Amino acid sequence: MKLYHAPQSRSVRPRWLLEELGVPYDVVQLSTTDGSTKTPEHMKRHPHGAVPVLEDDGLTMFESAAICLYLADKYPEKKLAPAVGSKERAPYYQWVVYTMATIEPPILDVFLNTVQLPEAERSAKVAEEGRKNFKDVAATLSKALEGKKYLLGDQFSAADVMVGSTLAWGSFMGLLEGLPVLQQYVARLNERPAAQRANS
Hey, how many other C-beta atoms are within 10 angstroms of the C-beta on 123? Predict the structure, then answer.
């Protein structure tokens, strides 16, 4: 397997999962700022010229959530996903989709309008709206994690990779201040050797 990866991007998610799985893979490191993701060669792999991209024995796929779901199912013996058809599979799907549909958008609004965009293009209103929307997300996740080690209880899963990596991004912008349940959850995940290797 080969993962096309850029540091501090969504490709950290599948890299983290690959490290959790402990399976052999190669990393092709690209950059989101030097144009290496926009070359004609890479655009054939990813139509939007982004990362991550996973190649696996003739398969080429993109989208971090899809790659994580695929990898967790490819190695069921590693138990990073509940069994297909089990009741535990439902909240697993829920939290993976929730990451992309509900957690990430407000964090992205804050990031774009406080960090990434040139100052003249930033909108304080959009950033504030992002902070406000994230409060609802934080309340939902804090309730879901209360008294639990991971989203599915004691069993770490690919859902934790998705949610945890996104909350870590939010923490970078101070969005977890005053949210002890989420702070402790992210700290717990960051202690995992696989997470540390993926972010190195």
Answer: 14
Q: In the CATH scheme, what is the code of domain 89-198?
A: 1.20.1050.10
CATH 1.20.1050.10 domain span(s) along the chain = 89-198
Rounded to two decimals, what is the model's pTM? 0.95
Identify the pLDDT of residue 200. Answer: 83
Q: What is the DSSP string of 129-169?
A: HHHHHHHHHHHHHHHHHTT-SBTTBS---HHHHHHHHHHHH
- Give the model's pLDDT for residue 8: 87
2-78, which class in CATH?
Answer: alpha beta
What is the rounded distance in angstroms from the CA atom of residue 19 to the CA atom of residue 192?
Answer: 10
Quote the CA–CA distance of 155 and 21 in Å, as a whole number: 14
Q: Which residue has the tokens 């971090």?
A: 64
Are the C-beta atoms of 52 and 10 separated by less than 8 Å? yes
Per-residue pLDDT reduced to its tens digit, 56-97: 999 999 999 999 999 999 999 999 999 999 999 999 999 999
pLDDT digits (tens, 9 = 90+) for 129-161: 999 999 999 999 999 999 999 999 999 999 999
Cα radius of gyration rounded to whole Å, the chain: 17
Cα 136 from chain centre: 19
Beta bridge partners of 5: 29
